Model the fold of this input.
Amino acid sequence: MATQNLTSLLSSLTIGLDPYEALYKHLHSHPELSHQEEQIAAKAASHLNSLDAGYEVHTSIGGHGLAGVLRNGTGKTVLLRADMDALPVKEDTGLDYASKVTMRDNDDVVKPVMHACGHDFHVTALLAAAECLAKMKESWSGTLIVLFQPNEERGGGAQAMVDDGLYNKVPVPDIVLGQHVMARRAGSVGCKVGHIMSEADSFKITIFGRGGHGSMPHRTVDPVVMAASVVMKLQTVVSREVDPDQFAVVTVGSLQAGQTENIITDRAEIRLNIRTQNHEVRNKILTAVRRIVRGECEASGATKEPIFEGTAKFPLSVNDETVTKGVHNSFAEFFGDRFDPNTPCSTASEDYSILASSQGKPSCFWFFGGADEKIWDETKQKGRLAEDIPVNHSPFFAPVIQPTLKTGIDALCLGALTFLKKP
Done:
């Protein structure tokens, strides 16, 4: 099956997109936090069964994870993956299907919840691709796995599914493919051979002082001042300790201390996120962070040693050369100049690759755009893309439904069909 045949085949196939647009709106307005993806998982399982296409559906893998297996003769086994969880963000998009959901997180704190990273698009596109590929079974041969992963945002979902016996339930894939909607021009697709996403480490750091009355700071050791100093010093790690030729990000995403203005609390919590694309740089930054925190605590007279707790870890994502070149050929033919085969490595992180690397198998990941084409073009002309196009995790992140959804569906189908070739 030549690439042109793939293009002709996919172009000639039509499925009704209206039900999938409605499904997307439903998922967007009903987000669920990591570890709590019960309803979206049930929706995905129900949809796969309703296709009546022969999918074997396995549920409750590594939490709320599920996978559908469609066996269609001899050939390669290809796994297509989508993530399901949402974020603790209060939506401010103004959409008529915007989320108003709140949930208790793993710390039992009530948080607003939003699909601020596009996982609702990922699930919808994969369900539509599952229908498309089932309808063209006569044109391919092999085994298709469609996998819906929980807990991507905390970096534990892929490993949890593997540890829970995923590959005792479904065949080990020859190839793992995945995608992510991003703040790019809608209809565009980007991929590259090699490093495609960064490694990430997240921590909760607790520092200890001595609490007391707000009017008597001399009788206390103020952890708020201590934490503020730590945060400022951490800003120098990348600018003064990392080679300018190397990529690195150190972000303090949360600093929490105290409950009211006239009490000096006895502790502060800093939540820190580190992104790197080189193991040596990662180790250097981790060492620097610990040195700075401990040094500031000692200098400030902290009453206890600080506590470092890892909260999430993501591997470096690397696209296999052979697999990615195959995907590139299909995408270039189908998407034309909307496809970029040399997209920059993303500063974001993913855990999808564990589904492949845990079995010694290759993987490929790509990005597709969700920003309204007209708005993107006008904003680019003004030189204000960074300021005016909301990025993932923003309360304003709202990809346009089309052509975003169709692009995601097409890309998944093309990726699978690249390798599910009849002899």
Notes: Residues 279-300 form the longest helix (22 residues).
